[in-house]
Amino acid sequence: MESALYKANKKPINNQTANKALQRMGFKGRQTSHGLRALASTTLNEQGFDVDVIEAALSHVDKVRSAYNRTDYLERRKVVMSWWSEHIEEAAIGNHLISGLKTLKIVGA
Question: What is the DSSP letter of 12?
Answer without folding.
Answer: P
